[in-house]
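Subject: complex prediction, re-run

Hi both,

The earlier run crashed halfway through, so I resubmitted it with identical inputs.
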Amino acid sequence: MKLKGKNILLGITGGIAAYKAAILVRLLVKEGAQVKVVMTKLAKEFITPLTLATLSKNPILVDFFDPENGQWNSHVDLGSWSDLYVIAPATANTMGKMANAIADNLLVTTYLSAKCPVMIAPAMDLDMFQHPANLKNIETLKSYGNIIVDAESGELASGLIGKGRMAEPEVITERVIEFFTQKKKLKSKKILVTAGPTYEPIDPVRFIGNYSSGKMGYAIAEELALQGAEVILVSGPTNLQINNSQITKIDVHTAQEMYEASVKEFPNCNAAIMSAAVADYRPSELFEKKVKRTNEDLKINLEPNKDIAAELGKDKKEKQVLIGFALETDNEIENAKKKIDNKNLNFIVLNSLNDKGAGFGCDTNKISIIDNKGDKIDFDLKSKQEVAEDIVNELIKRF
Ligand code: CTP
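This time it finished cleanly. Structure:
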């Protein structure tokens, strides 16, 4: 009875995998959870409310009010009743509505007003799953702090074989149990994360920048928040969004702005993870007007920016943990070790440009962690989310 005393709201949307929701309800109830079910109209075509009401021992909710007696089904009350809102199966349509706040049914309205964490198990055909619009919606939902139970690969209802099948009810139940039993190991810790590139202006319309997407730093911020930390995310310009009440985002453009925000925040933090790709140099003078084209060479003098990690390292207190990143093209280990010393880091996350699928812009990364005693751990090629988990687990060991 691992879910005794837990209130779980299950949202069921209209896909063939809806039939598996009956098994999911049974498994959750068997573990001791109180389950209420909210369905979309289409979901009722795939599985009957009677089946779900019988298994959950609660009436099923579909509409904003009961047409028989006018009783109001309050999405606000439902949201505040639940300890976890599980949406399984989640169709592309519903995820699109959730990602864009299209509140045209009780299920999505409840999602928008729910204060509890949300777990989403996508299910659809393989081509729908892979469509960039759908992948973007999933990314958006992740950035809101929602937990995604990834779809599985296999035979789909269409007869095609590929990724899109809803995770099995047993797997979802396991994730729910894990969610409630996981220790929030970073509760009451405040952690600074720098992320993304910096832009060093040349004139009003041009800058020196780099290819950093910020994905790694944002994944780290989300993982820290999942572990209960309060996160200050100092971010250079990226296309990423974050909407998590535990993460405060400070937007910056230049290395100097990132430096100022970081030195201000670090004294109140227990740790800092420096994942930003900070420009080492900036133009020494800023042209006030747009530089015009001529046939002459144009020389731009560059002056060094402050090394933010090294500055934090100088003031680091004994109990504070400072983590750096290194992206090296040659002499990787030797260079990484030098950076640990120069910046007074507890450990450094090394990603090599020599590894396929690692580095800027990719969704995957392959890292090694080298600590200040010289110990090295090599990790496999993983999604940036999994890499973030590995890095955060190493941080937890330092407290
Ligand atoms: N870093 C920083 N401020 C800078 C430059 C780097 O905080 N001005 C941080 C990065 O966020 C990273 C680590 O220092 O965590 C190493 O960054 P990297 O660019 O690899 O190192 P540099 O010290 O700039 O060395 P080099 O570019 O010569 O390899």
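DSSP finds 14 helices and 21 strands in the chain.

- K.
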